[in-house]
UniProtKB/TrEMBL annotation:
Protein name: MORN repeat-containing protein 5
Key words of the record: Cell projection, Cilium, Flagellum, Repeat
Subcellular location: Cell projection, Cilium, Flagellum
Species of origin: Vicugna pacos (Alpaca)
PANTHER family listed in its UniProt record: MORN REPEAT-CONTAINING PROTEIN 5
Length: 172
């Protein structure tokens, strides 16, 4: 554990993590549930720093069946996912609490939205620096390096921390 920066609270059997336990990763993601032979096994929940969670049944470290719940209570449903799709573009908070009056935009599910530092993108779990290709969480802790696919997706899709003039630019 000292090499990975993780923390384990639970029992050991033959030197391996086993039984009911709590496993905290360096990113502060926390697993609470059953362990067997050093792996997630049985019922367990991953709690993410963002407030979201993933309840699952695990077998030898792999998910057999699980449910992801966002921090606002919205549950992901792969078969019947209608949240913010082509038909209904409302955010979950708008579905729960109603739309804002005409002329007042809601840019994200979080209202008011996070302030994005200049030169960065908000990619949902943190801020992305397109120069270094590093994603840091909202408390400025390293999350990951973005690969080419994620980089392109963030640049194309996510909110950015600066304004750009759109449309026609008059000559001065």
């Amino acid at each position: 554990m000292e090499y990975t920066g993780s923390q384990y609270i639970g029992e050991f059997v033959d030197g391996r993590m086993e039984g009911e336990a709590e496993y905290i990763l360096p990113t502060e993601t926390k697993y609470v549930g059953e362990m067997k032979d050093g792996m997630f096994h049985g019922q367990g929940t991953l709690y993410f720093p963002s407030g979201s969670r993933f309840d699952a049944i695990w077998e030898k470290g792999l998910v057999v069946k699980g449910t992801y719940t966002f921090s606002d209570g919205l549950q992901y449903d792969a078969k019947n996912w209608h949240y913010c799709d082509g038909y209904d573009r409302r955010f979950y908070t708008e579905i729960c609490y109603g739309l804002k009056p005409a002329g007042i935009s809601q840019l994200t599910n979080m209202d008011p939205p996070r302030k994005i530092p200049p030169g960065y993108y908000d990619c949902g779990d943190g801020f992305y620096n397109p120069i270094t290709r590093i994603v840091k969480d909202y408390r400025n802790r390293f999350l990951r390096n973005a690969d080419d696919d994620e980089h392109e997706w963030i640049i194309r899709t996510c909110r950015k921390g600066w304004d750009e003039t759109m449309g026609h630019k008059p000559k001065l």
